[in-house]
Amino acid sequence: MATTQTHHSVHITHKDHDLDSLQVLPDSYQWVQPDLFPSLQQHSTPLSDTLPLIDLSLPDAPDLIGKALRTWGSFQIINHGVPLSLIHAAQSSAIDLFALPTPYKLKASRTPGTFPGYGIARINSFFPKRMWSESFTIMGSPLEHFRHLWPHDYSKRCDIMAEYDRELKSLCGRLMWIALSELGITREDINWAGPNEDFKTCNAATQLNFYPACPDPDRAMGLGAHTDTTLLTVLHQNNTRGLQILREGRQWVTVEPVAGALVVQVGDMLQIVSNGLYKSPFHQAVVNRTQKRLSVAYLFVPPENVEMSPHKKLLNPTQPPLYRPISWTDFIRIKSNNFDGLSCIRVDVKDEKQVKVG
Ligand SMILES: O=C(O)CCC(=O)C(=O)O
Ligand SMILES: [Fe+2]
């Protein structure tokens, strides 16, 4: 994954980011939903659904996953094969990291224009107010940053994150094949899954998100509504509620924390490959008054500079491609300047007639 990023990175200073010590919500954190977010459609009957919880070890899992991806663009999984001890070890390193005094954390700040390191959510640049959260992004080895954070104790923590990356990458490879085969796409149809057809040539980042307890949670927002610029995002949340997924454009549904479960979400790149059959859901993270919340998001993205396009098996004269081909590298550049990146690469009705379907 490219480590350079555009001018839209957001940076923090010691003065404005010690959320733990604030007793009153500063004006700069009093949340207003900007116009760029689609407003909720009004319906008299609320949806009372919960996100599907799927046991990955059972034979009907692929079928259930296919259904969940077409409706929610998301689901939770248990029996996913990632050792719970590893999930807890990664989580506990994240807890230790965010508990460090701010001057330490600032030693591991993202340098301008890059992804890895400590800071606030990149999407904050699209919103008029600050989000009630901190984050730390790991791409490749976190050694340089961890050495600053824990001069005597970094190597074990680096090993844990490396192991987390390996385990989650193989889980994502497995999930990719399930998602694709539910669309009738087979191994012969994909030429970017790598020499072993396991998607190990894909890139990834591990994003640690921390939401301190908030003095005025109803007026604050942990992470504003967004879609992920990934193929898949696989997220572990601690036992505190906060993640909400937008259901059918009309209702926020809270994803209940389930011990050991992982939340899987379609990202924009899989929405492109599936020609919109799988939609990357809007999601957000709300905060609460008494509990700290932590999430570890594994952001799984295509190999750099490989063009992703609606798969030709899904296209026909009545189902023309909805998006033009684009690499992840180019797409993240578009998204850093446009909140709704997918609309920028949508083939409009006029063009659709001209696109040949192979
Ligand atoms: O903390 C959460 O539950 C959401 C995190 C998220 O959406 C992200 O890291 O992109
Ligand atoms: Fe997200």
Characteristic terms for this protein:
25% helix; 9 helices; single chain; 4-stranded antiparallel beta sheet; IPNS-like_sf; disordered N terminus; EC 1.14.11.15; Jelly Rolls; 358 residues; 8-stranded mixed beta sheet; iron; binds fe (ii) ion; disordered C terminus; alpha+beta; binds 2-oxoglutaric acid
Please characterize this protein's 3D structure:
- With 358 residues, the protein is of the alpha+beta class.
- It has a single domain (49-345), classed as B-lactam Antibiotic, Isopenicillin N Synthase, Chain (Jelly Rolls).
- Helices cover 25% and strands 18% of the residues.
- It is built from 9 helices and 14 strands.
- It has an 8-stranded mixed beta sheet. The chain has a 4-stranded antiparallel beta sheet with strand order 6-11-8-9, with no helix packed on it.
- α1 (61-71) links the parallel β1 and β2.
- α2 packs across α5.
- The longest helix is centred in the middle third of the chain and has 27 residues, at 155-181.
- It is globular, with a radius of gyration of 20 Å.
- It starts with 52 loop residues before the first strand and ends in a 6-residue tail after the last helix.
- 40% of the residues are buried.
- The chain binds 2-oxoglutaric acid and fe (ii) ion (FE2).
- 2-oxoglutaric acid binds at residues 207, 209, 223, 228, 235, 237, 242-243, 283, 285, 295, 297.
